[in-house]
């Protein structure tokens, strides 16, 4: 099994602690549009693509802009924000794990609901783009998480069967997508962050510094998810 193994990472909240910044961007956009979105509603969109989020918000708040206009404005605002930010770092332990997986010749991919322009900026700022054999977004893959499309497409790009892929995710929607794709899913939920429903994941971790290629191989070969 080990030589068949592939590892797929969600980006926001997993590889990098960018979720608070995305949250800030969305609050700024809501203010620009004159809508007040309660936190419990805002939380529903974690791990989903912009078109899904704005389709729901347009219906909820009767926004006059077209869906295409809202999605385009969101992307332009978000790209500009992250370009100006310029100081993102990967989560602790991520670079060491990626380096170890690369040395072990285990293929890796990113599978994210973020739009390609933002993905490129974040991965380049973090200095980790070169580790990945594929970077897949829902723009390429089809339906947004919680649909499994983006994970199935990532497995196809890596030329691996879904059953031989292990996913690191942090959101309920992302975990559901990975599990429905037929993949092993490890939830990443660091201490001190907003807790999400991760009950569908096979196992959870709080720190990448305790994960190695050997840990991942053991999870997959022995199915030691408890």
TrEMBL record:
Keyword match Ribonucleoprotein: no
Pfam families assigned: Hydrolase
GO molecular function: hydrolase activity
UniProt keyword terms in alphabetical order: Hydrolase
This protein's record includes keyword Hydrolase: yes
Alphabetized PANTHER family for the sequence: 2-DEOXYGLUCOSE-6-PHOSPHATE PHOSPHATASE 2, PSEUDOURIDINE-5'-PHOSPHATASE
Protein name: HAD superfamily hydrolase (TIGR01509 family)
């Amino acid at each position: 099994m080990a030589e068949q193994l592939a590892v797929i990472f969600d980006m926001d909240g997993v590889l990098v602690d960018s979720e608070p910044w995305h949250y800030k961007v969305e609050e700024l956009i809501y203010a620009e549009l004159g809508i007040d979105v309660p936190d419990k509603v805002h939380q529903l969109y974690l791990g989903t693509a912009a078109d899904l989020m704005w389709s729901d918000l347009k219906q909820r708040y009767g926004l006059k802009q077209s869906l295409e206009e809202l999605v385009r404005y969101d992307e332009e605002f978000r790209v500009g924000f992250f370009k100006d930010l310029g100081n993102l770092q990967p989560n602790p332990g991520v670079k060491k794990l990626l380096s170890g997986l690369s040395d072990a010749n285990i293929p890796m991919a990113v599978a994210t609901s973020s739009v390609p322009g933002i993905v490129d900026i974040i991965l380049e700022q973090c200095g980790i783009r070169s580790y990945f054999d594929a970077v897949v977004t829902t723009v390429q893959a089809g339906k947004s998480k919680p649909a499994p499309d983006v994970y199935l497409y990532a497995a196809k790009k890596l030329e691996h069967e879904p059953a031989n892929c292990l996913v690191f995710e942090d959101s309920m929607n992302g975990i559901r997508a990975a599990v429905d794709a037929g993949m092993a899913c490890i939830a990443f939920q660091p201490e001190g962050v907003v807790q999400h429903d991760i009950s569908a994941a096979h196992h959870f971790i709080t720190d990448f510094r305790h994960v190695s290629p050997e840990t991942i191989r053991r999870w997959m070969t022995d199915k030691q998810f408890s």
